[in-house]
Write a structure and sequence with these properties.
This protein has 134 residues and is mainly beta. The protein has one helix spanning 120-129, and strands at residues 7-15, 24-33, 36-44, 54-64, 67-74, 82-89, 95-101, 107-114. The protein has a single domain (7-129), classed as Beta Barrel (Porin). The protein is globular, with a radius of gyration of 17 Å.
Length: 134
Amino acid sequence: MSDALSGAEKWIGRFSCPRPYESEFFQASLFANGHSLGRMITERAPVITSHSAFFISTGIGTRQGRSLDFCKIYQTGRRHHDALYEGILNAAGDEIAGHWVIPGDWSGSFLMIRRKVITTLQVTEVGDRAESNC
């Protein structure tokens, strides 16, 4: 796999929070078009959050080579802040690691890992081997 980003891709990840809070996990769709990036992120709320099971946010940003930056904007839940992210795509193109900051407040690190995509050929091969009970 190359360091290229194109089209829509699925990622999973984790971002660290300041102590005493635990790291939070997320799933993201990353949309790339040239130097422009878009993101849709779903985060599982931490156990200590009783008012929401998840948070949804969007993101928009840019890419220069393997360097990425974007702003995450929460759409749901009780989070009413934006977070700025800067990261580096590894040479294999399957991980993005970096730093996030809520200006004037918190900061931490993050890691995103590209989910493997099952191709149409793989799905067809599995379907051919499966027995139908219908």
